[in-house]
Amino acid sequence: MKKALILQGGWDGHEPELTSKRFAGLLEKHGYTCTISDTLDVLDDLDMLMGLDLIVACWTMGEIDHHYVENICKAVGSGVGLAGCHGGMCDSFRQDTEWQFITGGQWVSHPGGDGIDYMVNICHGSSPIVEVLEDFPVCSEHYYLHIDPSIEVLATTRFPIVPYYHISNKPVDMPVAWTKFWGNGRVFYTSLGHHDDVFDKSPNAQVLMERGMVWAGDGKQYAIDHGLTTERFENTAKMY
Prior knowledge:
alpha/beta
């Protein structure tokens, strides 16, 4: 049976308890045993992290001991998946750039706040995660992110929709969902999920998250089946 660790905490406005419970239920349908932790101290146990198939981040803002990020770096690099949504993954631990490097992006603004109507445009053919999904509307925060250019974009949304300083620039298609790799590990993110009920009001948002978590969690077995090791990553010099 596969194992997932869900990190639950940070700013309560993103309803981490509700989203963590939802994500655990989705994963259990796929044969996962899920542990929900409301403390980051669980990340001190590298051996435990290495035994996981998936880490799900539901922790907005806050601070983290960089040693814990280093352990996540090693675990995901070995093949453990990482998945998350909205500020629970890409507005976590703002002071830690290594976390941002792993996840592939960082929230910087949501012009207009909550209650913005916008379209999510599926990038057809980008990944099995979006297979047969169609474009869909969302009413929620419209996330503007700074992104890693190496990500594989699965869905986008058009900016700007509301007036703000950025409207002096050309319109852009901002990623809403993406995948990337960190060593042997698979990483999935979607910017949807400001409140838990977004996944009820826009069912395709939940389909994206469910498929993304499952895809990320399959990476460890793929690495084992294909004899992938971490040796090619471990001798890289790091400067801080």
